[in-house]
Amino acid sequence: MTRARRHKSEPIAKRKRGSGATVESPRPILLSRQIVGSEPHEISASSDFAEALSKRDSTDDSPTSAAFTQVVIPRSTPELLAEIASVWDLHPVLVDDLFHANQRPKVDRYDDVLFVVLKSAVYIDSAEEVEFKEFHLLMKDNVLVIICQDDRFIDGTPIPDRAEDMNSYFTSEERQWISDRDLLSLGPEALVYRLLDTAVDTYFPVLDGLQDDKDGIERQVFSGDTAAAERIYLLSQEVIDVLHTTTHLNRLTQRLGNGATKYAIPTELQAYLDDVTDHLTRVLAEAAELREALSQILNVNSTLVAQRQNEDMKKISGWAAILFAPTLIGAIYGMNFDDMPELHWAFGYPMAIGLMVGLGVVLYTVFKVKKWM
Fold first, then answer.
1. Using an 8 Å Cβ cutoff, are 368 and 322 in contact?
2. Is the dihedral of CA 151, 153, 156, 161 positive or negative?
3. Cβ–Cβ contacts within 10 Å for residue 237, how many?
4. Among 14, 32, 96, 98, which is least packed, fewest CB within 10 Å?
């Protein structure tokens, strides 16, 4: 059965109810917490952006330069994006980017606002497809806003429906960043780099899944399965998508590195960014090797197909020659000339039949010896 494939840039249609009315989306949930001196505080849930910022102001009566606020928006709405644009007085070009998903990874600065587009990856093994999840990061002053565009958090975990489950996710030991406390003390830029590293790390399981399927394709090719070619093409498309996305992520890290001096990024953060770049380099190298391997497998498959077709043509040619011999004898004795020898001979018919069978047997034996049959 042919697998239906939705292009990655196609939006998922909204479900409709009854007489064509669209289902009203619930009010968004904003999860915010302040990180003071690298210590994450308690998670607060809000229903609008202004409320999330006001809770930030009330969590610490004596904020320090090391304090910053993380605001996570698991599911955004146009109304919420418009509120963020209004509260922060965002640049019109930035507002336009916020309202349009399916963007390539990039980083831009608009006055005092840093805008970052990240994409993590999830491999759906049953469909042999790579799904990219997009995230928009907005950083202004000591506030970092993380806007999820799809159905997963940046580490690939599905976004739950209940606020309690979301709270449990962010209060887990892994999301408390116990091992990254020194990094978090460097401010919101550190969290941007941490999220970038998390997004890049999601590509390694994807490459493992693609590698496993590549190994399966190799076995399929040498077993003579005729469906291998289509599977090679489809998997090559997924590898190319990974290459394109990680290439843009690599350019993103380069731009962050180029602006390190201009925007006074601490040396520790620059070293952390170098580590993220190393991970990206590994991803790019493995993806390029995987693409080359699939290209070679396709060439091998084409060679094997041509070889099998050549064997089939030998068999067809052999049987055509065997059938041609009795046809030639029958055509000669079917001309019915009066002066043809053996035409009125009593043994003429048995002789003709014997010639036909004898030539067929001789040709079959010759072709069998030459391994054409």
1. no
2. negative
3. 15
4. 14
Quick one: three-class SS letters along 231-243? HHHHHHHHHHHHH
pTM value is 0.75
* CA–CA distance, 304 with 356 (Å, rounded to integer): 36
Condensed to tens digits (0 to 9), the pLDDT of residues 128-180 reads 899 999 999 999 988 999 999 988 998 888 988 887 788 777 777 566 665 66
* Burial (Cβ within 10 Å: 0-12, 13-18, ≥19) of residue 14: exposed
The residue written with tokens 């054409």 in the block is 372
Give residue for tokens 């011999």.
Answer: 325
Contact 290, 243 (CB under 8 A): no
Query: Considering all CA atoms of the chain, what is the largest pairwise distance in Å, rounded to the nearest integer?
Result: 125
The torsion region of residue 135 among left (phi > 0), alpha (psi -120 to 50) and beta comes to: beta
DSSP state of 104: P
Q: Of the candidates 153, 140, 142, 146, which has an alpha carbon nearest to the alpha carbon of residue 71?
A: 146
pLDDT in tens, 201-254: 999 999 999 999 999 999 988 888 878 888 999 999 999 999 999 999 999 988
What is the rounded distance in angstroms from the CA atom of residue 32 to the CA atom of residue 38? 15
Q: Which residue numbers in the chain have pLDDT < 70?
A: 1-26, 55-66, 173-181, 260-264, 309, 312, 336-339, 342-344, 373
Tokens of 246: 């990680």
Calculated CA dihedral for residues 167, 178, 136, 102, nearest 10 degrees: -90
H or E, element range at 76: none
